Amino acid sequence: MPLNIPDSDATRVVIIGAGFGGFRLAQKLASQKMQIVLIDKNNYHQFQPLLYQVAMAGLEPSSISFPLRKSFQSKANLFVRVAEVNSVDLENKKIETEQGNIYFDKLVIATGAKTNFFNNAEFEENTIPMKSVSESLYLRNKIFEDLESAITSNSAAEISKFMDIVIVGGGPTGVELAGALAEMKMHILHKDYPDLNSKNMNIYLIEGKDRLLAGMSEQSSEKTKVALEKLGVKLLLNARVQNIQSGRVILSDGQILKTGKVIWAAGVTGAIVHGISQEYISRDGRLLTDDYCRIKGHSDVFAIGDVARMETTEYPNGHPQMAPAAMQQASWLGKYLMGKTQKPFKFTDKGQMATIGRNKAVAEFAGLKLSGFMAWLIWLMVHIYYLIGVKNKLFVLLNWIWSYLFYDQNLRLIIRPKFQGNTIK
Amino acid sequence: MPLNIPDSDATRVVIIGAGFGGFRLAQKLASQKMQIVLIDKNNYHQFQPLLYQVAMAGLEPSSISFPLRKSFQSKANLFVRVAEVNSVDLENKKIETEQGNIYFDKLVIATGAKTNFFNNAEFEENTIPMKSVSESLYLRNKIFEDLESAITSNSAAEISKFMDIVIVGGGPTGVELAGALAEMKMHILHKDYPDLNSKNMNIYLIEGKDRLLAGMSEQSSEKTKVALEKLGVKLLLNARVQNIQSGRVILSDGQILKTGKVIWAAGVTGAIVHGISQEYISRDGRLLTDDYCRIKGHSDVFAIGDVARMETTEYPNGHPQMAPAAMQQASWLGKYLMGKTQKPFKFTDKGQMATIGRNKAVAEFAGLKLSGFMAWLIWLMVHIYYLIGVKNKLFVLLNWIWSYLFYDQNLRLIIRPKFQGNTIK
Fold it and tell me: Which chain B residue shows the shortest CA-CA distance from A190?
């Protein structure tokens, strides 16, 4: 099967990945005299910062996903292809996908990050990652199925296995999940599941460092810690996971947490495409680029966003693997490919934020350190602003207003696409 | 595993099925001095009349589904159990479920209808049914995946296999699906898939009778036929499906339609629970009841809605298998079980309606026969009215307004709950 991209005299720019970086770059280049091919394994862009709300039944997948084809409807030079990339051949400028092969003039690798299990098969087998809409929906279904199972169980050990949740990783994802779970326990559990004792649900958050949100200031870490503890989250700082087996997490100090659900939010690594020589890959699994986003030695191959590691004096370990770096690199690369700039890329730190719960967040930007209601309001506004699609903005906002007014998220549905009793390939 | 329903002196009424009948009955009885156990295999009530809009990417599953636990949050005597019923033992008043067994004082079977493949294994294997949210989502994913596959195909035969759709059954579901598909073809296909020639998409609607919507007047049938033909739907009336094989439908006149997607909307039969003696089951697969909704010979076992067949002088073949009969029987049975009526059930025909597309519907009620914009407006209002949940009403309405203004439904996402690359059990 071919990818069916028409021949053209225009420069062909192939972008792999339609996340924050790839999607924005495609937008920038869509009206240029270039042939743009945007390849993603999904037919939609997903807004990763809100994945945890999909998992927590606060938002529908569709509210944070935007169909790629709709985004580029009137762009005659832009071709969306839903395909899994098998490998790239940088020397011959060739990409092999499940759906066929394609040659490029310029290649932009924007494949983002994937969950880092640190090559530990047990971590991978026995935990639930949360890096995609699909994984978030899986987690949502699992949480509510387990609560149903807890109701029809009469062994205390089994009930706690169904109710307890362990989150590994105290970064923004872990903090936001823990906060949302704690609020669900507080506001919804006893109402929806009167047969269960909500006190039996333990939410553990495990972090290897001595504080949460290590990317932010100690002050924000401390506020986050206090807020989560007030919500009833059991924090285990300086705690190392030694082993995760089916039904239990073993910490290096010997402590054992028994649970049926371990959420893995302990780190990411680059989602490297096959075929790239090891010499271009950093030890933390990212593509090494110069400060023109070029993979070293290749003037026509670029990497942007979470998959890239641009080591600079200011950022010797590369930029933070977050949306702002990806978007800024995309904007810069767009200009560069149009010939509008020759200056190297420079990152502007826009700050960081994380939400903890209702009226509670921490935010740091422009020298400010905010927490509480103001930080929460800014968090809401920033997320609505960056969400793709007017309808998505509207529906997310309405959902949030609804949840805020009624202390209820309302999407506690266990739904799978099914057909004749079988889950379908 | 037990169902963990506490012992009680109150009469225990077990309701199997939370569709229009079971859900409404549970609402009626929830505050009575009875113990109500509501069993459903899903944790939500689904609004079946709008399933086709989920399949057609017009609505999110959550908009037409309502969590059962949320509906009955403050009802201390009502117990929701998400369980698959294996069988009932009417003589010993016992129900066996996957999650454990339970005894009843009174039993209400409200299991609804299931797709009728007329015992033809080939029909069942090679077609897609659309009787649940899960099946509708499956169909949505399949439609949009196939369009992606059509783009990366270069055999005309394969492309038409991916694009063509055959719908079997010219009742409301078939008509509504065909209309929605035709409008997608007209308004969206060429914009989202400029690489495809939208003329290559053929939408076939097959009906064995000589007219569509056989439950309505000939006038409405004719208007529906004209409207669908104008939308480009290929109608095959008086057409009988002889055989359905992978990739093709063979009609009894020898005609062969090649297609990768056959949607089966050709009929339903009762979703009978195992363990009920054949003598209580009608030839069309429903539970025979007297006009007190009682299964003959059992004063404490009732059947309501699509699964029931109450033969009366006016309705010698039972009532129409539609929401109004189920809801009216539920309301009546609620009163009867509370001792508030001794009169037998009597069905009030509220009429019928079907939507064909934008501004187009047919509706018959109170002696009126409406079509066009007025019928369409009434269709919208009736569906919003009967939808469960204020938020669902609001979100469905907003979605409809959005689609109406922008000729676009916007939910063309291929999403499955996935985990580590595997679709999960």
Answer: B73
| Of the residues A214, A236, A266, the one at which a domain ends | A266
A 267-326 residues with CB < 8 A to B: none
Judge whether B258 lies within some domain: yes
Tell me the nearest-neighbour CA distance from B145 into chain A, angstroms.
9
* CATH classification of the domain holding A152: 3.50.50.100
List CB contacts (< 8 A) between B133 and chain A: 415
User: Is the domain of A228 the same as that of A183?
Assistant: yes
Report the pLDDT value the prediction gives residue B425, as an integer from 0 to 100: 32
Q: Is residue A367 part of a domain?
A: no
Q: How far is B370 from chain A (nearest CA, A)?
A: 33
Query: Taking a contact as any Cβ pair under 8 Å apart, which residues of chain A between 145 and 204 contact chain B?
Result: 148, 151-154, 191-195
Count how many domains chain B has: 2
- The ipTM (two decimal places) reads 0.92
- State the Cα–Cα distance between residues A128 and A130, nearest whole angstrom: 7
Residue B289 located in a structural domain: yes
B250 bridge partner residues:
B243, B256
Q: Which domain holds residue B165?
A: 121-266
Contacts of A318 (CB under 8 A, 6+ apart): A282, A284, A286, A308, A309, A310, A311
Chain B contact probe: residue of A86, A403, A412, A415 with most B CBs at under 10 A: A415
**A154 and B4: CB-CB below 8 Å?**
yes
Q: Using an 8 Å CB-CB cutoff, list chain A residues near B425.
A: 423
Among B341, B366, B339, which Cα is nearest to B352's?
B366
The predicted model scores a pTM of: 0.94
Residues of A in contact with B192 (CB under 8 A): 67, 69-70, 73
Tens-digit pLDDT profile for residues B206-242: 999 999 999 999 999 999 999 999 999 999 999 999 9
Q: Note whether B133 and B253 are same-domain residues.
A: yes
Asked if residue A197 and residue A146 are part of one domain, the reply reads: yes
**In terms of Cα–Cα distance, which of A4, A83, A70 is closest to A38?**
A83
Closest CA to B239 of B287, B297, B174: B174
- Which residues in chain B (376-415) have CB-CB distances under 8 A to chain A? 389, 391, 394-395, 398, 402, 408, 410-415
Three-state secondary structure call for residue B131: coil
Residue B410 covered by a domain: no
A160 and A225 in a common domain: yes
Question: Letter for the amino acid at A65?
Answer: S
Token pair in block for residue B301: 């076992």
Q: Is pLDDT above 90 for A412?
A: no
User: B172 and B306 share a domain?
Assistant: no
Over residues B56-89, the pLDDT tens digits come to 999 999 999 999 999 999 999 999 999 999 999 9
Based on the number of CB atoms within 10 Å of its own CB, is B154 exposed (0-12), middle (13-18) or buried (19 or more)?
exposed
Give residue-wise pLDDT tens across range A267-292. Answer: 999 999 999 999 999 999 999 999 99
Output the CA torsion sign for B415, B417, B420, B425: negative
Q: Is B415 within 8 Å of A69 when comparing Cβ atoms?
A: no
Judgement on whether residues B145 and B238 belong to the same structural domain of the protein: yes
